[in-house]
Design goal:
alpha/beta, 10 helices, 35% helix
């Protein structure tokens, strides 16, 4: 099966600073990947390079087996790649409904406004509120809901639970599980190792912009020394 999204020997960086070094990554239909590593190891840079927000210095990004070098970010999004960025990126002056409808695009996955509101009952309660009137957790719900309104084949979540209260984190993880069960492929960046491991089919670990592990989470969990070295947590 041809991967939906693929990085082949991908290197990228900022000005004279090389951040990614020959990264290989494949994501197939319905698969969930936990993209992991300590802070500053290149996770967000890799997401930016996959989406065309940062040019590759060497290597390729492929979507459905086709080189995406000539595709700007909006064209990659139209091919079914949606990102929930770390800063959420919602429109503060627009209502919840307006934020959702702004992103709406029909697709076979069948994500509609009503389906998103069923997934996030709290957004239904806040449907007329502006983005800047929402709590941090509600803003995160809106960011995920807006991404789903594009009817994506791939959802990339960059620190979706960062800074949220425990109950809100639990709710976001519940939603990620529902989305994953609905067949949407996912790349999940998050520091909550146990939660990522419970959802991901594979864990990919970056150290200084290079892949040092790519395999089932259980293999990483079984090696406490690697867990401590790569992720800073006990196995």
């Amino acid at each position: 099966m041809t991967p939906i999204l693929e990085a082949l020997g991908l290197s990228a960086g900022y000005d004279d600073s090389q951040v990614l070094h020959g990264v290989n990554l494949t994501l197939r239909e319905g698969e969930a990947i936990g993209l992991m590593g300590r802070n500053g190891m290149g996770k967000t840079t890799l997401i930016r390079a996959l989406m065309g927000l940062l040019p590759a210095t060497t290597g390729q990004v492929r979507i459905d087996g086709v080189d995406a070098a000539a595709l700007p970010p909006f064209a990659r999004a139209r091919r079914g790649i949606a990102v929930v960025p770390e800063n959420r990126g919602i429109f503060a002056s627009l209502s919840v409904r307006e934020n959702l409808r702004l992103a709406a695009r029909t697709g076979p996955a069948g994500w509609t406004e009503e389906r998103v509101l069923e997934l996030f009952p709290r957004l239904r309660e806040r449907i007329g509120n502006r983005g800047n009137q929402l709590s941090g957790g509600e803003q995160q719900m809106l960011a995920i809901g807006r991404a789903l309104m594009t009817n994506p084949r791939v959802l990339i979540l960059d620190e979706a639970t960062e800074g949220l209260a425990p109950l809100m984190r639990d709710e976001i993880w519940r939603v990620i599980g529902v989305i994953r069960d609905a067949g949407v492929a996912a790349i999940i960046v998050d520091k909550t190792v146990d939660a990522v491991f419970s959802i991901a089919d594979r864990a990919i670990v970056l150290v200084k912009g290079a892949v040092v592990h790519d395999g089932p989470p259980a293999l990483l969990r079984a090696n406490p020394d690697l867990m401590e070295r790569y992720l800073g947590v006990a196995g």
